[in-house]
Amino acid sequence: MDNVREILALYQIQGLGYVSILKIMQQFKSLNELLDSNETKTDELISKKHLIYIKKSIIELDKFAQKQLEQAEKLGVRIISYYDKEYPNLLKEIYDAPPLLFIKGNFSILNNKTIAIVGTRLASDYGLKTAGYFAGGLAENGVTVVSGMARGVDSAAHKSAIEAGGSTIAVVGCGLDIVYPPENKNLKSRIEEHGVMVSELPFGTEPLAHNFPRRNRIISGLSYGTIVIEAGMKSGALITAQTSIDQGREVFAVPGSIYNKRTKGTHYLIRQGAVLVEDVSQVFMEIPGWIQNKQSLTEEEIRSPLSEKEKALWDVMNYEPMHIDSITETTGTNISNALSVLLSMELKGYVKQLSGMMFIKV
Predict the structure, then answer these.
(1) Does the pLDDT of residue 257 top 70, yes or no?
(2) Rounded to whole angstroms, how far apart are CA atoms 128 and 122?
(3) φ, ψ for residue 226, nearest 5 deg
(4) The CATH number of the domain covering residues in 306-361
């Protein structure tokens, strides 16, 4: 049974899990065929209680499916099944892959090279800039950035991937007819234009708390690896890291200040064996087969390009330590602005701050 309408009907049956739905899909072409089948064929697939419910409620189940299909057409959303050729190959590899995906945007990127970027909703400036650095650098090198469109790190990753001219995938924990968080309405539109919105949940599903941990397995399931940036010990980003491990994918963690409680989770991941990354090129090094496709790739080539403000500072610096006062005097920049620009350059891997407010090209 690969008919989306039939699967939508099965979605309404409480207690019927995705694995069971997929098994039923493999055996039967329709709900009527399922109901007409003998018990020896159905006993291992579905309980008698569920069969009785389907028989009793088949008209209502079909009405629900029809409404979902009508709303999909109205909103320009595609609903694809596990057996459609457009279904992402990576996602098929996970144990509890969703039987259906609701998608809006450029669905062809679902089979691109992908890396997830996740982290706290309450990100610091460092966390936001770091997310932007990695997302931008990956996007510039042909990698699609996957995240959850939450506040903080997620939103920064999506925005930076788009601004770098790349593509991004947002996996949400609600129906695609709902914008969550509400302030991301414009971002959602940009993602639909420059990437794709994805949900496993039918239209009308509210962004309830229990939807997000399950959503996280899709974020990691669509990705060759997951980068965790600024995550506390109770952060949902650690759930995504764990699902990535369970799925046999790479986990990367970006270190931060020992005084920042939002980095406790990332440091925990590093102690548990996650790959510590400070540069985009290190991500390429860890994914099997990626670096061979970029044999001439150097760290300089993979780094995000300099902005005009950054280039102005870069041009006056050299590979010997230079004090902040010398930099500001030479460029005519005030210290506050210079430090902000230098931090951005450090995150991109162009400069390093030494003790005594000294900076050096790297």
Answers:
(1) yes
(2) 10
(3) -125, 130
(4) 1.10.10.10
Is residue 213 within 8 Å of 239, Cβ to Cβ?
yes
Distance in Å from the first CA to the final CA of the chain: 58
The string of DSSP letters for 341-359 reads HHHHHHHHTSEEEEGGGEE
Q: Is the pTM for the entire model greater than 0.70? A: yes
Phi, psi (5° rounding) for residue 292?
-65, -30
pLDDT at 24: 81
List the structure tokens of 69.
Answer: 């299909």
Task: Give domain 104-301's CATH number out of 3.40.50.450, 3.30.110.30, 2.70.70.10, 3.40.1090.10.
Answer: 3.40.50.450
**Secondary element (H or E) of residue 195:** strand 195-199
Per-domain residue ranges for the chain?
1-75, 104-301, 306-361
Q: Cα 227–111–155 angle (5° rounding)?
A: 40
List residues bridging with 360 in a β-sheet.
Answer: 352
